[in-house]
Amino acid sequence: MPLRTSSARWQGSLTDGSGTISTGKGGFTSNYSFKSRFEEGEGTNPEELIAAAHAGCFSMALSKALSDAGHTPNSVDTSATVHLDKTDAGFTVTRIDLDTTGDVPGIDAAEFTKFAEGAKANCPISRLLAPGAQITLTAKLA
Fold this sequence. Notes:
Elements lengths: L5 E6 L6 E6 L5 E5 H5 L7 H23 L6 E13 L2 E14 L5 H14 L1 H6 L4 E8 L1
């Protein structure tokens, strides 16, 4: 399997500095700052990137599971919300809420939810994050 890399550059102090984050193949570059991470400033932050990675991985895993079972989806749309909370250990990602909607012909809601739960448990990003963060799931058909 290929290795994946991203990079970040930070300049200045924590609260007054700023930086850029880039993916390895140049598909994404964004500014980030204290304000974009801990307030409502312009730019992205590490938690948004974790959310994007989790939503993307989960959507692909769910699509694969559905397709393998003969239910090829027209689409799987997923959002992930990362909760960054201050704990005794410091700021910690404590929970990630996945919210997915599938446009999947020939399947009922209960079966779709079963496949979604399987994808939540088995996508590589879920397996990485689950030991330290609670992962919730809301799954529905379009």
